[in-house]
Amino acid sequence: SNILLDAEMNPKVADFGTARLFDSDETRAETKRIAGTRGYMAPEYLNHGQISAKS
Q: What residues does the Protein kinase domain cover (predicted)?
């Protein structure tokens, strides 16, 4: 359910478990709740609730 296909039928891994809509003028969101699929989460986010540009 988390595999999408592009126009050339190439598979893309997706996880919409943390997806949400933003208003057009909203540039960031803050939450204290960790959410997502553990196997696809960045380790630093999973362990400490902090993300970086690399994650």
A: 1-55
